[in-house]
TrEMBL record:
This is Lysine--tRNA ligase. SUPFAM superfamilies: Class II aaRS and biotin synthetases (SSF55681), Nucleic acid-binding proteins (SSF50249). The keyword Magnesium applies. Homodimer. Binds 3 Mg(2+) ions per subunit. Mg(2+) 2 binds at E428. The gene is lysS. It comes from Microbacterium invictum.
């Protein structure tokens, strides 16, 4: 007779996590049952902390192996390594910045009952507070020789393996774990904070004022993009998530804030890839009595100062080890001239639509017929012929008029506007204008955009009467720029956009 009982299924990682959680829940129950007062248990409201781990590491950086300080300190951190022996237990406590200190729990210092409780109740991932003398172990490890300890927060789920990186998908979905286990994640988060601080410092040095503009708007504007639509019950109306703050910041310039900037969140209902996110951080700035040349100078300074704030130099080292120089004076090239040189034929604002269409077809460059214009073809051809060959940071100057409805016409070149795009690492980092301030021409440009929308261009801008009314009160000559903060981080770190955003949107 044959035994047909199926073999038990092999244990999975999920099974192991389930078992560990059950064990930890039992420890939680014990901690709650044995607590003396509300300050104890698995999740006390307060634990002793007199010093931070980074501060102690800095203060005692030169402490010799085996030395004692005679100083008692209380520190708290997450346990990321633990080793229990008979009469002495070791644990590495990690602070939020990744710095660590060793906790030593010995029979001689804490007594048998406390030592046994440590062995039975403390797990990897738990937050603990330890109090004791600051010493250096015989191996030279800065340590706290504990005389007392307490659980600060009981972890019910285990940490990932500290020596095996999470997958990219795991990192972005569980960034809190990524921050615990991976130094690069912590470094990137801190670098972003330094970048934002540097941007504000540079603007302050140039006497700019930081403002806030609405995220919910009655109608979207300031960029060629498809918006997210939401509904306001209070106003019984559809509203749009901001695609750009431009039209509101220009209102501020009309109102007399001659130098204004905003670091904001924008939302565009479009694709997501290695350089695009539906929700992203944006910097926009406007300087009255300047133009696209002056705002280019400022943008270069902003980026270079941010690089120095993060790395100490304008030569940045990317995640793959590549060294990229953001220093010096950046190149400025003409879109039409650089395209002509690369294509081997003269392409100007006067080049016919038919000639551009034929060239695009020959090169396999596609632009949907319903939205194809002279300018769109020129820009697509430029990306095809020129974009991939840019190595240094480069301002690409002087764009076609029909793709730039908010930009002033070039002062000497017909059919061109005073606009630049800044390319770094092969992607567009920022764009800058000599702003269009003539309300009559602006109305005409909006009408042209409306015609494109009627032809099926769902990214075309809409006519904004409130903005036009502001312009009719007089806006001074102004240079403006917009720059993606996420992309600035990409330029400095060499990482993809999802790595530079702390909590990126994922399905």
């Amino acid at each position: 007779m044959t035994d047909t009982t199926p073999a038990p299924a092999p244990a999975t990682a999920e099974d192991d996590v389930f078992e560990q959680k059950a064990v930890r829940l039992a420890k939680r129950e014990r901690l709650l049952a044995e607590r003396v007062d509300a300050a104890g248990g698995a999740y006390p409201v307060h634990v002793p902390v007199t010093d931070t781990i980074p501060a102690l590491r800095e203060r005692y950086a030169d402490l010799e192996a085996g030395a004692e300080t005679g100083v008692t300190a209380s520190v708290a951190g997450r346990i990321v390594f633990s080793r229990n022996t008979g009469k002495l237990c070791f644990a590495s406590l990690q602070a939020g910045d990744g710095s660590r200190i060793q906790a030593m729990v010995s029979l001689a210092e804490v007594g048998e009952e406390s030592l046994q409780a440590w062995k039975e109740l403390v797990d990897l991932g738990d937050h603990v507070s330890v109090t004791g003398q600051v010493i250096s172990s015989r191996r030279g490890e800065l340590s706290i020789m504990a005389t007392d300890w307490t659980i600060a927060a009981k972890a019910l789920l285990p940490l990932p393996n500290m020596y095996t990186e999470l997958s990219e998908e795991g990192r972005v979905r569980s960034r809190y774990l990524d921050l615990i286990v991976r130094e690069q994640a912590r470094t990137t988060m801190l670098a972003r904070a330094k970048v934002n601080a540097s941007l504000r410092e540079t603007f302050t040095a140039h006497r700019f004022v930081e403002v806030e503009t609405p995220m919910l708007q009655v109608q979207p504007g300031g960029a060629a993009a498809r918006p997210f639509v939401t509904r306001s019950n209070a106003f019984d109306a559809d509203l749009y998530l901001r695609i750009a703050p431009e039209l509101y910041l220009k209102r501020a310039v009309v109102g007399g804030i001659d130098r204004v900037f905003e670091i904001n969140r924008n939302f565009r209902n479009e694709g997501a890839d290695s350089t695009h996110s539906p929700e992203f951080a944006m910097l926009e700035a406007y300087q009255a009595y300047s133009d696209y040349n002056g705002i280019a100078d400022l943008t270069q300074e902003l980026v270079q100062n941010a690089a120095v704030a993060v790395t100490g130099t304008t030569e940045v080292t990317w995640a793959d080890g590549t060294v990229y120089d953001l220093g010096g004076q950046w190149d400025r090239i003409s879109m039409y001239e650089s395209l002509s040189d690369a294509a081997g034929r003269a392409i100007t604002p006067e080049t016919s639509f038919e000639e551009l269409t034929a060239l695009a077809a020959a090169e396999g460059v596609g632009v949907p017929e319903k939205i194809a214009t002279h300018g769109k073809l020129v820009e697509e051809l430029w990306e095809h012929f020129v974009k991939g060959n840019l190595e240094r940071p480069t301002f690409v100057m002087d764009f076609p008029l029909d793709t730039s409805p908010l930009v002033r016409e070039h002062r000497t070149i017909p059919g061109v506007v005073e606009k630049w795009d800044l390319y770094i690492r092969g992607f567009e980092l920022a764009t800058g204008y000599s702003e269009l301030v003539d309300p009559v021409i602006q109305r005409e440009r909006f009408a042209e955009q409306a015609a494109l929308a009627d032809r099926g261009d769902d990214e075309a801008m809409r006519l904004d009467e409130e903005f036009l009314r502001a312009l009719e009160h007089g806006m001074p000559p102004t240079g403006g720029m917009g720059m993606g903060i996420d992309r600035l981080m990409m330029a400095i770190t060499g990482l993809g956009i999802r790595e530079t955003i702390l909590f990126p949107l994922v399905k």
